[in-house]
UniProtKB/TrEMBL annotation:
Keyword Repeat included in the entry's annotation: no
Name of the featured protein: Carbonic anhydrase/acetyltransferase-like protein (Isoleucine patch superfamily)
Organism name: Asanoa ferruginea
Residues in coiled coil: none
Keyword annotations from UniProtKB, A to Z: Transferase
GO MF term (any one): transferase activity
Cross-referenced Gene3D superfamilies: Hexapeptide repeat proteins (2.160.10.10)
Keyword Transferase attached: yes
PANTHER family tied to this protein: DYNACTIN SUBUNIT P25, GAMMA CARBONIC ANHYDRASE-LIKE 1, MITOCHONDRIAL-RELATED
Length: 200
């Protein structure tokens, strides 16, 4: 399904294949030789989504471009099934295995590999030829790659990256207060811009 969003329509190179149940919304650009498979969602939420030549987006992956951080995949990138990428830059020849997660402002260097359920956190920089093991978390710049059970180590790096401030423009509340009223108001308002979308 192709959707016009905020005056922008997806563009697909004639040599690319987009499955009939994939959804492309807004300023999405699919390059030559690409494959976007069943159930994948590529959505430009204020910033473009660009898929480089010969890249593959597997089933049920979600790729989201944001106003602050457009999403760009380089050439010959494989995005595995159910992966989630938001506002990140992925260089050439990167492998993002099933269930990988890459968040806003992250940069993944050429030939890097994020294994099954690996996470690359907000504003994290992976140099070329990096590898995140199965289920581990890459966080920060300089980079730290930590097992999920090292919550204190992850939080120490993550706190400085300021997810609520960077993504939603909100200050982290005092202990015991919830971020969710502010997040739901701001994010809901932004997503409400889809009410004027038009299916092509």
């Amino acid at each position: 399904m192709l959707i016009e969003h905020e005056g922008h329509s997806p563009t697909i190179d004639p040599t690319a294949y987009v499955a009939p149940t994939a959804t492309l919304s807004g300023d999405v650009r699919v390059g030559p030789g690409c494959r976007v498979l069943f159930g994948a969602v590529l959505t430009a939420e204020g910033g473009p989504v660009e898929i480089g030549d010969d890249s593959i987006v597997m089933e049920n992956a979600v790729l989201r471009g944001t106003r602050r951080d457009p999403l760009r995949l380089g050439r010959q990138v494989l995005v595995g099934p159910t992966s989630y990428l938001s506002g990140c830059q992925v260089e050439d020849e990167v492998f993002l295995a099933t269930g990988s997660r890459v968040f806003n402002g992250a940069r993944i260097g050429t030939r890097s590999e994020i294994r099954v359920n690996g996470i690359v956190h907000l504003r994290t920089v992976l140099p070329p030829d990096s590898m995140v093991p199965i289920g581990w978390v890459a966080v920060g710049d300089p980079l730290r790659i930590l097992p999920t059970e090292d919550h204190e180590g992850i939080w120490a790096a993550q706190r400085e990256l300021d997810f609520p401030g960077y993504v939603f423009g909100l200050d982290r509340p005092a202990d015991g207060e919830s971020l969710m009223p502010g997040i739901s108001e701001r994010f809901g308002r932004a997503l409400g811009r889809h009410s004027d979308d038009r299916q092509l």
